[in-house]
Design a protein that fits this description.
mainly beta, eight-stranded antiparallel β-barrel
């Protein structure tokens, strides 16, 4: 092989590597919420991913008892513990390194449209939206 041919092959290989789509990041694992109040375990649930609260910075209320889901719009669920409850519900792939589904907010007892987007292997942007117009975001960190 000549030097020119080798250089051309090398250049083509580098170009192909740069043009190939990056492998999708895996969202499964433990994540610390942006406000630091909770740790969420993301794992498969059917053909989607879901997240459950596995730790709270302050797991007990002022009365010393475990925090309950007192703001839930479903009165039957207001006596369940927040620790262990689902917060990310049925997120399905929505593009490269992105998932869409629902997120439950125990602070107001409501469920919102949600987007989970990997920013890197250790950071993810989580958005909860009303009518896809009014959104709040947090950046979560992998634990």
């Amino acid at each position: 092989m000549t030097i020119t041919f080798k250089t051309t092959l090398l250049s083509m290989g580098i170009f192909a590597a740069l043009m190939a789509p990056a492998l999708a990041a895996n969202p499964e694992g433990l994540w610390r919420t942006g406000d630091g109040k909770a740790t969420v375990r993301i794992s498969p649930c059917g053909n989607a991913i879901c997240g459950h609260v596995v730790a709270l910075r302050q797991p007990n209320g002022p009365d010393g008892k475990p925090k309950l889901d007192v703001h839930n719009v479903n009165a039957a669920l207001r006596k369940r513990r927040i620790l262990g409850s689902a917060v990310l519900l049925g997120l399905k792939p929505n593009g490269h390194d992105s998932w869409h589904g629902a997120i439950y907010n125990a602070e107001d007892g409501k469920t919102y449209s949600a987007y989970f987007t990997m920013l890197s292997a250790t950071r993810a942007k989580v958005q909860g939206c009303v009518a896809a117009i009014f959104c709040k975001s947090q950046v979560w960190s992998r634990q």
